[in-house]
Structures are given as C-alpha cells and as structure tokens.
Amino acid sequence: MPEPYLQTAIDEARRGLESGGVPIGSVLVHRGEIIGRGHNQRQQRGSAILHGEMDALENAGRLPAEVYRESVLYTTLSPCAMCSGAILLYGIPRVVVGENHTFMGEEALLRSRGVEVDVVDDPTCRQMMTQFITEHPEIWNEDIGEP
Amino acid sequence: MPEPYLQTAIDEARRGLESGGVPIGSVLVHRGEIIGRGHNQRQQRGSAILHGEMDALENAGRLPAEVYRESVLYTTLSPCAMCSGAILLYGIPRVVVGENHTFMGEEALLRSRGVEVDVVDDPTCRQMMTQFITEHPEIWNEDIGEP
C-alpha cells in the first residue's frame, strides 16, 4: 500500500480517469494536512495548463510563501517542466513522485535547485498511465507537447 | 512605440491593472495571428497559477504540439519558473519579453534549452511594474513566492 498522501493522489488520478481524463493526480500537504488536491483537467475542462499538480496548487488557493516552503507535493507522475517550474516558483522543498517510467519529468532540474525528489515507483500509478497512453496516445501526446 | 504584439500584451497588463490586479499581460502568436491573450489573475480570480503567460496559454485552449512549435509568446515581464516551464513543456521556440528589470525570470534556463529570448526593455512595462510593486509589495511577493 502506498503511503496515505500518495494514495490520495492516486484517488485523484482515478477520479480523473473515471471522468474521461488523463489519470494523473496530486496533493499539496502542509505540515501533515492536505491543503490542495486535484487531477489533470485537459479533457474535462479543456485546459492546457491544469496538469494534476497545477490543479492541486490552484485548488489550494492563494497562499503565502511560508506555507509553500513548509509543504510537500505528492504527484502520481514525474512532474513536467511546467509543474516543476511551479514547484520552483513557490519554493516547495520536497516532491514525492508515484512513478517516472511512463514519463520522465524535470527531476534533475528540481534536484539541481535543491528540491528533494523521492520516487516511489508505485505499480498502480504505472498501470494507470501505461493503459491510458496505450488507449489514448493522441491525448497523452498533446498533454506533454509532443506531436 | 512597441511592436503591435507587445502592445497587445501591454494592453492586457493595463486591463489587469484596471481590474485591481498585477499588471502583467501576455499574448500567444501563431504565424502572425494572436491565438491567445491574457493577464495575471491572482487578484481577480484568486488564482495561484494564472500568471499572465499562463492565462494567455489557457485562453488559447487545447492545441496540438505543432502549433506551439510555430508560435511566439509575448509577455510584458520576464517569465518566472512556472511560465518558463510551460514554454519548455510546449516547445515554444521564441519569447519576447517587455522588461526584466523589476523581475529576472528564467531567461538563462530558457536559452540553455534553445529558446530564443528577446528582451525589449519597454519603458511602459517597467513603469507599470515599478509602480505596482511600490504600492502593493505584499501581492507582488505572493505572486513570485517570496516572503
């Protein structure tokens, strides 16, 4: 069983999948309390920017810098350049990643800027993404800016 | 006078200012046609992720990778890590920046990844941001994740 916060991110990914979307979920945790959660909204809301992590950050609402700097972001998939950039903008010091086999994000950039990146390699995260990419390659490519 | 696309980004910044927000605007231009425009929405929509560039990308809607790769993003202010990450995610090859005196974004990172970054140093862009930061330092600091 994944740890509880990652499990909540997985629950978000599954909600996304069940509503016809890309199965990536994310949770922002401040001092042990979930303050934001969300999932990829490309299909559901026609969004080009609401990746799972961005949706969690947006749902957390406006926060002072101090809160981000004491928070951990959980995400089912290795964060892309946009989501990694948001992590850097807000100085989130730690990211827990469900898996990075189906997509390798900007983990090296994050680490080079001092962010702790822990990759869990969770089988449920991998399975959901592997199946989605197989069934909907065109949506997935659009989501990561690939032709 | 700034070039027309930058002027449209400045118009967006001014709309943002007049509606009580951070005066940063952006325009996405594909083969000479404006396909998305927007401005910072922190104050107006309580958003943590709708910087000017992100708002322009969101308003452009879902696009195939090919369109981004033939587009130019105009922004009144040097793009932060999040917006630069979005530029990298979508492979936007060129960014025109109004000014980078009031805030230096991730121009070096963008250039290191092959993005052309042209800084105009437009006096209107500088003046709007200088005045806003002086009058609302707490909002500005929140917008860039500073305490």
UniProtKB/TrEMBL annotation, chains A, B:
Keyword Coiled coil in record? no
Stored InterPro entries? APOBEC/CMP_deaminase_Zn-bd, CMP_dCMP_dom, Cytidine_deaminase-like
Q: Which domain of life is it from?
A: Bacteria
Domain CMP/dCMP-type deaminase stretches: 1-117
Query: Pfam families given for it?
Result: dCMP_cyt_deam_1
Q: Does the keyword RNA-binding apply?
A: no
Q: Which UniProt keywords apply?
A: Metal-binding, Zinc
* Name listed for the protein in its UniProt record: tRNA-specific adenosine deaminase
| Gene giving rise to this polypeptide | cdd
